[in-house]
Amino acid sequence: MQDAKTTIESLLLNGEVGERKGAIDQQRTTVLIQPGRQTDGSHRIWRKGVVLLSGLAINAMATCTAHAGSYEWTSSYTQGVEEHLVDDGNGNQLDIACPDDNESAVSAYATIAGKQYSSENDGFDVIVDGTTFSNPFYTDCEACSSNFPGFWAALRKARTLQLSAGGQTVRLPTQNLPQVLQPLTSKKNLCRSAW
Predict the structure, then answer these.
(1) What is the pLDDT of residue 45?
(2) Model pLDDT, residue 69
(3) List of the chain residues with pLDDT < 70
(4) Contact, 107 vs 137, CB < 8 A?
């Protein structure tokens, strides 16, 4: 703890906060101490530095746990991409990405037994109620794209959901699935096939 205190005091007293302020501002956090401010009350600077770092740590923990171990389907929208996410609390997850540019197709990313897969590169299978769909989120061919509507309809109604790749198969929750994934014909749905 003493090393951290010394580092914070050094940064704050030597005016290095100004150089690092840009990185802090990117996280929408306000620097509490003016750069280069000298005072004999270093304890005040120390306390303000601790408050700043504590706030950043709490913010980081809240961000990291927002999706971890949710055991149900969730949606988020960031930088022009709607994402539909689910995880099993053991590190296995499915992330469906749907861009809003009216040109880009759906893609998906899976983590299965600690290994990451992409529908664009490695591919992975999705097993819905016992029926296996081979890399269904890859839609950049006419035949692949023609299978997507049937897969999507089945996925929305899934009672059991599994991902399979690399000789591993994992089960994912289906809770909240029909509320999160909209029908392909819905104006609210940004997911579309390439063809």
Answers:
(1) 41
(2) 62
(3) 1-69
(4) yes
CB 123 within 8 A of CB 135: yes
Q: Which residue type, as a one-letter code, is found at position 187? A: K
pLDDT at 83: 97
Strand partners, 132: 127
CA dihedral 22, 77, 193, 185 (to 10 degrees): -160
Dihedral, 108, 109, 113, 114 alpha carbons, nearest 10: 180
The helix (run of H) or strand (run of E) holding residue 18 is helix 17-26
What dihedral angle (degrees, nearest 10) is formed by the CA atoms of 144, 180, 158, 166?
60
Angstrom distances, CA of residue 157 to CA of 34, 179, 183 = 56, 10, 11
Residue 15 confidence (pLDDT): 45
Q: Which two tokens stand for residue 51?
A: 């408050």
Query: Cα–Cα distance between 83 and 89 in angstroms, integer?
Result: 18
Q: Which two tokens stand for residue 125?
A: 């299978």
Cα 90–chain centre separation: 16
